[in-house]
Amino acid sequence: MKRIYYMLVVAIVTTFSTNAQEQMKNQLPYYEIPKNPSTYTAGTVAARMIDGLGFRYYWATEGLREEDLLYKPSKDGRTTEETIDHILGLSNVILKSATQTTEEKSTVILTFEEKRKKTLENLKKASDIFMEVKDLAAYDLVFSEKFKLPFWNNINGPIADAIWHSGQLVMMRRSSGNPMPKGVNVLMGTKK
Q1: Which one of 60, 87, 88, 170 has the fewest beta carbons within 10 angstroms of its own beta carbon?
Q2: Number of Cβ atoms within 10 Å of the Cβ of 60
Q3: Single pTM value for the model
């Protein structure tokens, strides 16, 4: 009887632990790509590009270890964590475009988990804003009162750059012995 009781307790604890881990993962945006918008507008297309970036970044950074963060492909290259810092900065620029505010430099030091969460949240907020926009002409990249660029530069600038660097994260984690989790389907935006 004690053995059955013990096995039951272990099963319950294991189930609870697995469910808690899944809930924590699902609290961050982009475990999967959100449902398709019902219409094609400039804003929904821009939002979907950001969603694709968010999904790729989520899985490129999921399960990174300390040795992955320290990995540097060459003496002149960035470490994985420095690349993550750069993508965080790009996500700030994308969000500032969506909110039409100027970029502010932060001096707060964040852990890897905090950087990852902040990046994903920035992308989700920007996507949500652009999802409702019909005309992107008013959503300039604003660096200062004297330096503004049209939304076009957001596409070939920070959005494309962050996608590029997310691919680098995948390559670097593979090189450091920790390939991306299996079952990620970037075409469908799902994880099996």
Answers
A1: 170
A2: 24
A3: 0.85
CB 80 within 8 A of CB 174: no
Mean of pLDDT values over 53-75 = 97
Under DSSP, is residue 110 helix (H, G, I), strand (E, B) or coil? coil
Alpha-carbon dihedral angle through residues 116, 119, 124, 125, given to the nearest 10 degrees = 130
Backbone angles phi, psi at 62, to 5 degrees: -70, 125
DSSP state of 100: T
Distance CA(149)–CA(158), nearest Å, equals 12
Instruction: Supply the pLDDT for residue 33.
Output: 97
Which DSSP state fits 73?
Answer: S
Q: Which amino acid is at 120?
A: L
Q: Is residue 57 within a helix (H) or strand (E), and if so which, with residue range?
A: helix 42-61
Burial class (CB in 10 A: 0-12, 13-18, 19+), 144: exposed
Report CA Rg, the chain.
Answer: 19
Are 42 and 135 in contact by the 8 Å Cβ rule? The answer is: yes
CB count within 10 Å of CB 34 equals 17
128 near 122, Cβ under 8 Å? no
User: Whole-angstrom Cα distance, residue 185 to residue 169?
Assistant: 17
> DSSP E strands: which ranges in 58-157?
141-144, 147-149
